[in-house]
Amino acid sequence: MPSIYKRGVVWYVDLRIQGRRYRRRVGCSKQLAELALKDLQVKAERNQLGFLDRKEISIKDFLEEFQVYSKATHRSSTVTRYRAVTDNFFEFIQKQTSLNRLTQITHDTIEKYKIHRRTVPVARNGGDPSRVRKDAVGQGAKGYTVNFELVALRTMFNLAIKWGYLDKNPASSVKKLKTDDSKPRRFLTEEECRRLLESSAKADYPAFFTFLSTGMRRAELVNLEWSDIDFQMGTIKIQKKPFWLPKTGEREIPMNEGVSRLLNALPRRGNFVFTDNQGRQLNPDKIRGHLVETARRAGIENLTEIHALRHTFASQLLMKGVDLPTVQRLMGHHSIETTMIYTHQTTEHLHRAVSKLQMQQA
Prior knowledge:
The protein folds into three domains: about 1-50; about 55-180, DNA polymerase, domain 1 (Orthogonal Bundle), CATH 1.10.150.130; about 190-355, Orthogonal Bundle (hpI Integrase, Chain A), CATH 1.10.443. Helix content is about 45%, strand content about 10%. It has helices at about 30-45, 60-75, 75-95, 105-120, 145-160, 190-200, 205-215, 220, 255-265, 285-300, 305-320, 325-330, 335-340, 345-355, and strands spanning about 5, 10-15, 20-25, 230, 235-240, 250-255.
C-alpha cells in the first residue's frame, strides 16, 4: 500500500509501481509528504515516471538517507563508525568531478577508493591530517580499517538495492586487502591480572574485577542494572532495555562466589550497578582512561583497551580446560569461529607448559 513514513525528522514516500518499490526522501513536512505521495500516484497512473528514475538520486542524498536510517536502527557506536565511513567516502567522491549520481558508482570506483584510503596520509588516531602535527600523520589507513570500510559500503549499497536505487552492488566483487597490520589481541597473564587489581583505585576495582571474572563487554557492564542480577540463582542477565540493546542478543552469565560477594557489597545509588560517587551511570570513556592509568602504575605494557579484559576472561577459561562451546555461550558469540580466535593463546600456553618438561635422552 502506498504510504508515507518518518525517520528521525525526515518524511519519506513509499509506493510500488509494476512490482518495483520506490522510496523517496521528501523533507520535514508531513503535509508535503502527503502531497508528494498523491502526486506520485497520479503520475504513475499516467506513466510519467521519468522523475522516479533511479539515476536521479545523488550520492550525497543517498549517504544522508543512510545516516538517517543508521541513527534509527543502529547503536550509537555503530552510527559513529558508519558516519566515519560515509564521511571518508564522500570526501573521496567530491574529488571525482565526474561522479554525482549513485548509479555512476562502479566496481572501479570502489577499487580506486580502496587505493585512495591506503595511500593518502591520515591522522593516526583519526581526524583531519591537516589539523594535527606532521609526526602524528601516518602513510595511509590500516588494512583492517580499509577492509571494514569495504564491508560497510557493501552493506550500504545492498540497502540501496533494497530501496530501489541500484540494480547491483558495485562493492560486491571488490576483494579485501591481505593484511598483516591487524591489532594483536592483548591477553593478561594471571600475574598481570593480580598486579592490575592490586594497583586499581577503590572506585575502579569492582568494574575491573567484574570484567575479568565475567567477560562482559564495556557497554554491558555500564548498562547493568540491579534488576539484571539474581543473587539467589547466581546469574547476571544481559538483556535489552528501552535505552539499550545488547550487541549479540540476550544471555545469562553465571557468577562465581567472588563476583557475587563483590556485587552484593556495592552501594545501591540508583538503578545502575556501577556508578560514580554521585550515583550517575559510569562514563565508558572514563573507564578506559582509568584502565590505562592503572596499567601504567602496575607496570603492565600495551594495555589500552577495556576489551583486553574480556579477551583475558576467554583465554583464561580455555587455558584451564573449559570447552569451546561453553566459552562461546559465556562470551555471547554468534559463531564458534569467533571464539576460536582465543585458541592461539591456549596453544602457546600448552607449548610453554610442555617446554618445562625436559626428559633425558637414553
